[in-house]
Amino acid sequence: MGCAGSTRAKGDGGSIKKIRKPKPWKHTESITRAQLVQMREEFWDTAPHYGGRREIWDALRAAAEADINLAQAIVDSAGVIVQAPDLTVCYDERGAKYELPKYVLSEPTNLIQES
C-alpha cells in the first residue's frame, strides 16, 4: 500500500498512462471555429486562478495543442500524472488536480465549417 502521492517503481507494472485523443463529442449547440478558439483562450487564461501550478497548466496547454506523441512527451517530462487517458483529469506530483474540458482537447462533431 502507499499514499496517494506515491509512485510505482519502474518494474512495478509501469505507472505511466498512455494518452489518447478524446472520444468524439458534441457541443450543446453548433459553434464556429472562432467561438471554439475564444472558449479555449478564456479557459487557458482563467484556469491557473483555480489552483495548481502555472508551469503544469502551461505544459497541459502545450500537450493539448500538440500531436499525440509530442503530447505524451510533454506530460511525461513535466511530471504530470494522467488519471484519464484523454487528459481530462490529471494531477501534478504534489497532488493538485487539473481538469481539462473536452473543448480544449479536440473539436466537437457539430463544429460549423466556415467557408
Short description:
The protein contains 4 helices and 5 strands, in the order E-H-H-H-E-E-E-H-E.
Mean of pLDDT: 87
Look at the helices and sheets and give the structural class.
Answer: alpha+beta
Largest sheet: 3 strands, antiparallel
Strand content: 5-15%
Order of helices and strands: EHHHEEEHE
Poorly predicted ranges (pLDDT <50, ≥5 residues)?
Answer: 1-14
According to DSSP, the number of beta strands is: 5
Question: Could you give the distance between the termini?
Answer: 57 Å
Helix content: 25-40%
Strand neighbour order, sheet with most strands? 2-3-4
What general outline do the C-alpha atoms trace? globular
Report the C-alpha radius of gyration, rounded.
15 Å
Write down the oligomeric state.
single chain
User: Please, how many helices?
Assistant: 4
